[in-house]
Amino acid sequence: MSLVLGLSTLLAGAQSVGYDQPYRPQVHFSPREHWTNDPNGLVYFRGEYHLFFQYNPFGDVWGHMSWGHAVSSDLLHWRELPVAIPEKDGEMVFTGSVVVDHANSSGLCTAGMECMVAIYTGYRKDAKGTLQNQNLAYSRDNGRTWTRYEGNPVLDLHMSDFRDPSVFWDEKGKHWVMAVALPLEHKVRLYRSPDLKQWTQMSEFGPMGDVAGDWECPDLLRVPSGAKNRDDVWVMKVGLNPGAPQGGSGEQYFVGSFDGTRFTASTQPGAHGWTNYGKDDYCAISFNHLPAGQKPVLLGWMNNWQYASKLPTSPWRGQMSVPRSLSYVKDGAGIALRQEPVIAPLRGEHMAIASSAEFTRDAPFELDLKFDGHADGIVGVRLYTDNEHFSEIGFDRKKDEFYIDRTHSGATVAPEFPVRTVAQLHPERLFDLRLIVDRSSVEAFAQDGTIAMTNLIFPGSTRTRMVFFSSSGQKPRVRGDAWALRSIW
Ligand code: FRU
Predict the structure, then answer these.
(1) Which of 223, 225, 218, 242 is nearest to 234 (CA)?
(2) Nearest-atom index, ligand 1, CA of 96
(3) pLDDT-derived band of residue 448, with 50, 70 and 90 as boundaries?
């Protein structure tokens, strides 16, 4: 075992080696080998963005859950590091967050110093049953090595389902706040703590919105307005699995207010929405301790529990979405979360799109498009990877739907895979479309980022022919930009 871990550690130094297999994402993070699911402990500390992730160090299916680790200086180029927090003595390390304990409130840092503290769900399953509780680990060396706190667990309700703590520092209250899920009760509980060790319940949120499946991976975050001179709002984001509108796993959000104790959802139009209207973005969380002035950044697992273990990739399985900067929009259609992909630093060769003439590119690439005129039918683009296989992205004005159709995109993976995912269009918003096409995914941002739609695809080729179409048969009027994207590896 140590030999295997030693070897992968060694190879992790050479980041360009081992990242060129078929379907291997070039602008999205994936571990060099083995299984990943949720991102964990997203945090910025001393010039580095840290991405921890649910990881099986021993295989390409779920199991032995540990925290994998990668670091980046720009949220795009990731360097995978050795496993941060491994499974230990029968305790798996489930999803959680990392905070920077600036004032050593926990006493876990070297005296007078700041350090990183992870708050994760410990999971045990034995003859006595299943137990999930909240635990701490700390790192005094910028996340390179981690020690479990000897007083664990720090929050234990003796429940089989109680998980995914998301912790942040509340500057007003001068204490830590934790949002944590009671999945089967469709509730998010809020706790506070002066030292990350003792937790006092403040309130509960839910059930509300969609409750067809477990509630997992909550995140309570403050989101600025996209316009000037508007107040921030608070957003409660919570994963739903299964039972999301597109099938399987999904992520709903509630816009509202947080008074330091309680989150209250707003009742205005649009206050309840989905952070992603595709099938493949789950358990997204935001980065803690971002530099002042930086908008919140959300990053999710680009997958769906319906078929996550069947993805035809090797020697890794699972990848993350692109990071997305968050703000909110308030207009005639109501309020909505707005997501802007962080991708511009990877842009390479540029082409201006001035007509609907077709052209060809190799994935990964980005398209920024504007469709002209107010057609009353369908306008969109098909991404052909051979004559029979294509993904179709379109605006359907008859049904007022934005959609991605991947029924003909390539390998079908599982019965739940070949689908058309939809989101409601708002005629008063822009008809713009940003597409990030990687070797095994299409991420779409439409209507000024108020619709995010992420879907995996498994085409036979990276060579992609862009064909603009409309339901009237006439070529639509389209303009915009196409960029080659440079690989992050
Ligand atoms: C969500 C989830 C979390 C849990 C983790 C285990 O995808 O089920 O609730 O902590 O995965 O890997």
Answers:
(1) 223
(2) 10
(3) very high
Would you state the structure tokens that stand for residue 114, as one six-digit string? 């700041």
Structure tokens at 168: 């942040």
What are the tens digits of pLDDT across the range 12-39? 444 567 899 999 999 999 999 999 999 9
Count of beta carbons in the 10 Å neighbourhood of residue 9: 14
Q: Is the CB of 163 under 6 A from ligand 1?
A: yes
Beta carbon of 303 within 6 Å of any ligand 1 atom: no
Could you give the CA distance from residue 168 to residue 42 in angstroms, rounded to a whole number? 11
Alpha carbon of 216 to ligand 1 centroid (Å): 7
Work out which ligand 1 atom sits closest to the CA atom of 301: 7
- Helix, strand, or coil here: 345? helix
DSSP string, 303-337: --TTTGGG---SSEE--BPPPEEEEEEEETTEEEE
SS3 76: coil
Closest Cα to atom 6, ligand 1: which residue?
A: 94
Extract the tokens encoding 473.
């048969």
Question: CB count, 10 Å around CB of 438?
Answer: 25
Ligand 1 neighbourhood includes 434 CB (under 6 angstroms): no
Q: What separation in Å is there between the alpha carbon of 248 and the centre of ligand 1? A: 14
For 228-278, the pLDDT digits (tens) are 889 999 999 999 999 999 999 999 999 999 999 999 999 999 999 999 999
Q: Which two tokens stand for residue 88?
A: 């230990």
- Yes or no: say if 353 and 467 are a contact pair by the CB < 8 Å rule: no
The catalytic residues are 38
Cα–Cα distance measured from residue 55 to residue 320, given in angstroms and rounded to the nearest whole number: 12
What is the position in ligand 1's atom list of the atom closest to the CA of 239?
A: 1
Asked if pLDDT for residue 164 goes beyond 80, the answer is yes
The pLDDT value recorded for residue 376 is 79
Q: What are the φ/ψ torsions at residue 345 (nearest 5 degrees)?
A: -60, -15
> Across 46-78, where does the E strand assignment appear?
48-56, 66-72
> How far apart are the CA of 196 and the centre of ligand 1, in A?
22
Atom 9, ligand 1: which residue's CA is nearest? 216
217 lines ligand 1 (CB under 6 A): yes
Of 91, 181, 175, the residue nearest 136 (C-alpha): 91
Phi, psi values for residue 185, rounded to 5°: -95, 0
What residues contact residue 3 under an 8 Å CB cut-off, 6+ apart? Answer: none
| DSSP states of 232-270 | -EEEEEEEEES--TTSS-EEEEEEEEE-SS-EEE--STT
